[in-house]
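Much of our argument rests on the idea that a fold can be written as discrete symbols. The amino acid sequence and the backbone structure tokens for this protein are reproduced below:

___
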Amino acid sequence: MSDTQYVLWFIGMAFVIASLLSFGVLTMSGSLHRREDHATIHAHPRHAEHHHWYDRFHHAA
């Protein structure tokens, strides 16, 4: 491989790694969820409860 091919390969690998990392960060932060899953309102007899993606960590049961 020539020097140009090595540089292009390195840039390509850096782009792939950066894309995977950013996808993982967005997935873990909940930014890639559908809008219905992000914040849903459930009607209860006494009050309406607003749920967020982080409720699963705050409410164990």
Remarks:
- The first strand starts at residue 40 and ends at 43.
- Residues 2 and 8 are 10 Å apart (CA to CA).
